[in-house]
Every structure is written in C-alpha cells, then in structure tokens.
C-alpha cells in the first residue's frame, strides 16, 4: 500500500498516476488488448451462472401457476402477484373450507395446500434454533480454541485431532444413535433443544479450527503480558482475545447460524412435530407433495433463501476472512 | 472432604493444566454426547444383525454385515454412483473455482460486487438448491428446456433428471453451483498471497502468460487446492440432501449412492446393522481420502 510513498518520485504523484500505478501493480494475466471486453463478457457469464438460478426462483415465486407453466417461460414475470406469499403468511385468510372449496383450483394456483400453514411456525423454529446454535457454538468453541492455541498442556494436538476428526463421520451415520441419546438419556426428542444440541456437534469442530487459526496470528507477547499482570486465563480470553478476535467471532456466529438454518438430514430424522420442524423439512414436504403448485414451492424457497443470503452479503468481509483464516498458512 | 480433594488436585496439576481442562470440558462433553458416543454405538450396532421388523432377535454377527454388503450387487452400484458423483463434483468444482478465482483476481470495476454475489450460492440452503434445479430441469415447464429451445440448441423439450444416463451429472451440476464459491474464495485468498515479485521476475525473464500461470500460480496454489480437495471430497462423498430432494435415488438406480443406501437400509428396511456398517465404510473412505490429499498436497498440512 505504501510502496509509492517509500520511493522518491521525480514528479508529483497525482491521483491519476496513483490509480495507474495501483493498476500496474496488480499482475495482468490477460493481455491488455480486448481485456475490458473479455472481462465484461465474463462478468455477464459469471452473473448468469451464479445469480441466474436464484433469479428464476424469485421470478417464479411472483407468478401465478398459469403464467408459470407457459411455453416458452416468462423470463420476466408478466403479472407480478404476491398470492403465493399471502398463502404462506396469511394462511388463515386463505384456508380451504367447505364453503369456498370450489373457489380454488390446483391448476390455476389459487389453491393453497394446507401444508402452507406449517411454514410460518417452521420459520420461527429455524430462527430459534439458528440463534441458539450460533450463541452456544461460540461460547463453547472460544474457550476450547483458546485453551488449544495458548495454553501449553500435554495432549493439545491430540485434543485438536479428536475434535476435528469427529467431522469425518457422515451425519447420516449419527442419526440412529443420536435419536436414542435424545430419547432415552435426555428425553428431548422432537424438541428444538434436541436440534440445537445436535447442530453443535456439526458446528463446533469447524469453529474451533477457524478460531485457532485466528488466535495463532495474535502475537504471544500480548497475552503473556496480560498473564504477567495477573490476569487469569478467562480474563485474558475475555479482555484480550475476544476483542481482537471479533472478526473471527462474527464469522463463527454467521457460519453456525447458516449451518443450522440449512441443515436437513438430522432435522428430518429428529423431528416429526410442527413444534420442532425447521424450514427445510417443511419445504421438502412441499416438494414431495406433487399437488403443491410450482409457484408456491418457489415462494417457500424464497422465504428460506432470503435470511441466509442477506446475512452472507451483509457480513461478506467477516465470512470470507473467517472461512479463509487457515487457507494461506496451509 | 471436597476441599481436600481439590487441594490434592491443585498440588498435582498446575494452573495451566487445570485451566485447560476446565476450558475444554464443555466442548468435550458435548462432543462426547453427540458424536463420540454415537460413533461407538454405531460401530457396535454394525456388528449385530438388527432388523426392526423382528425386534426381539438381534444376533451378533461380527463383521457379517460388512461381508454381506460386499456380496450385494446394489452396494457396488452405490459405490460406483458415489465415485462418479464425487469425482465429477470435485473435479468440476476445482476447475470452475480456479477459473473464477483467476477472473476475480483481475482488477476491474465491479469486482467487489461480483465477489459478494459469489456468496449467494454458498448461503443457499441445499434444500432450496435442490428444488431450484429440480424446477429448472423440469421436463415440461423447466427453464432449461425453455432456454435451450429458444437458443435453438435443442429441437424439443428433453427429459433431464428422468434420463438415467444424465441424472448423476445433473445432480453434480447442482452441487457444483453451491460448492464452487467456497472453493473459489479459498483459491482466491491463496492467490493473493503469492508475492508480486515472482511475477515481475518471470516477466523480466520473458515468461509468457501461460508459463507464468503454470510455473508460478499453479504450484503456489497447492495449499489452497489441498483444502478444496479435502473439503469438497468430504462433502460430496456423503452428500444426501440433493439426492433426497431431486431424485430419491432414482430413476431406477441412476442416483443410488451410498448415503442414499444408508437411508434406505436404516429407515425403509429398518436394518440398523447394515445401515451402520455402510456408514462406517463411508466414514473410513472419507478419512482415507482426506488423509491422502493432505499427504499429497500438504506441506505442513500433516499437522492440521
């Protein structure tokens, strides 16, 4: 960043020169001629592939079933309608009763299947579980990561291996024993607490890994000084590592929330009541039910995709920093 | 009495050891309850012939479940489907991610916006990913058919997921869409850590774009690729969500993978022993492959 300042320059460095130098400093792998055109084309292709499919889910969610099944597809929705979202969020107003049973018709998409009423409770469950997983995950992981990164005790490498190697086991292999643990020992099967506990097993190893990588980049003098001044390990953690490690902590919070929000297999097996089912379970029910209209499935998809995508874009810097904490060192 | 025990412990272990134990205890207790105990229980289960349709007789069969699997033609179908899926997904993810990382490593306007958009597929729940591509691939109303027809690439609407010769590749495509961003981000970060001087020196020596790419960029990306290969293989080899939502193992056995077989054996046939044995084979394969990649590509990777 400061290379130009260090070198004495015969001419005054104007912003234009500075900008040119900034460009020149980066290594151009592509030849200069046609570079702009090529980059533009690639940007369009990139956006088409990365965002296109999600755009299509959004576009499908605001069309009526009749518009949606047209050939060729309406790439830009003809009549934007929110009826699919109304069905999800105001199910009670749209419920099929004996009186209005013939008003709706599956073929036109005006009919809202009764499964739609489950979406709102499951949305709440997903938020609840995700929030608690995010909080408990960081509380558990940060103490463990601190201990492994900074306290020199016998077997710290082995402890790290033990924590990391648990992720080798496929989640689906854990389902049956976990089900028994939750039912027989803890008695919390079919509860949100069961999901929270289970998800910690998924998120904690990765979070510990991220935090250790981050903590190891903090100069050792810092905590040594604090220790010499009489801080306990817990105080060092709270007063030194927590503030400095904030980016990694935020990344871990996001990561845990997203993992919990997106998880499917474990939730599928551990929950069978609407009090505990999360969004992916209810949505998969939509997909398996062939009478559900495509527009409603897509609306449900939009509901599920919005929170994680918005969080990811809002906290992009932290997430990228956290996910790649260990990448550079290899 | 407790105080004397505490005093004895204090004498035996110094402050650091005691702190470490206290700080690590919560994590270890949680992991013991929700992964370590289940793993052992699962292995124990795999040694018995447990069939919930016959709940009171569960004879010990040793490694009988494993041997029986090796004789089962369906198991080998599952192995081949899983192999194809994993190889295709990991390779495509790595190649595409390398392209995207090289592209985003260039300086141009809008680069930051594109980099942020990269997180959209990453954050998309796999269930939504599945329903999204299922809808795009839909044989009668899908946008893939619509697009390809409008572009004149196909004459009539095609069956996509329902065509057994295409199924696994189309599911892999959906997986790549979601997994590519993380791989690209990892490679991009590794790329940014390559010292500028290397490129300048190479230029002075007259190396062209391709020589610079093959002799500087690619070798320097080794640690990044190691992470990508380990991570993507671990994800792909046991992937379940997309198979569940898109094809349920079908059509026929076109997407019958090991993870799907575990699900079928455990929850449809209620043969818990066979399901656990399969899960163990899968875990072992995952472990060996990760180890292999770390050994092949890691520098100090071995101690991670």
Radius of gyration of chain B over all CA atoms, rounded: 25 Å
- Measured distance between first and last alpha carbons of chain B: 43 Å
Instruction: Quote the beta fraction of chain B.
Output: under 5%
Order of helices and strands of chain B: HHHHHHHHHHHHHHH
Helix content of chain A: 55-70%
- Shape field of chain B: flat
The helix tally of chain A amounts to 17
> How many H/I helical runs of chain B?
15
Q: Decide which structural class fits the backbone of chain B.
A: mainly alpha
- Average the pLDDT over all residues of chain B and give the rounded result: 84
How would you classify the quaternary structure? Answer: heterodimer
Helix fraction bin of chain B: over 70%
Following the backbone from N to C, one meets helices and strands of chain A in this order, namely: HHHHHHHHHHHHHHHHH
How would you sum up the major sheet of chain B? Answer: none
User: Into which percentage range does the β-strand content of chain A fall?
Assistant: under 5%
Mean pLDDT over all positions of chain A: 79
Structural descriptors:
heterodimer; A: 330 residues; mainly alpha; disordered N terminus; B: 304 residues; 15 helices; 0% strand; disordered C terminus
Task: Describe the fold and architecture.
The complex is a heterodimer of chains A (330) and B (304). Chain A is 67% helix and 0% strand. With 330 residues, chain A is mainly α. In chain A, α3 crosses α16 (294-314) and α5 packs across α16 (294-314). With 304 residues, chain B is an all-alpha fold. In chain B, α2 packs across α15 (272-297), α4 (73-105) packs antiparallel against α12 (222-237) and α7 (126-136) packs parallel to α13. Chain B is built from 15 helices and no strands. Helices cover 74% and strands 0% of the residues of chain B.
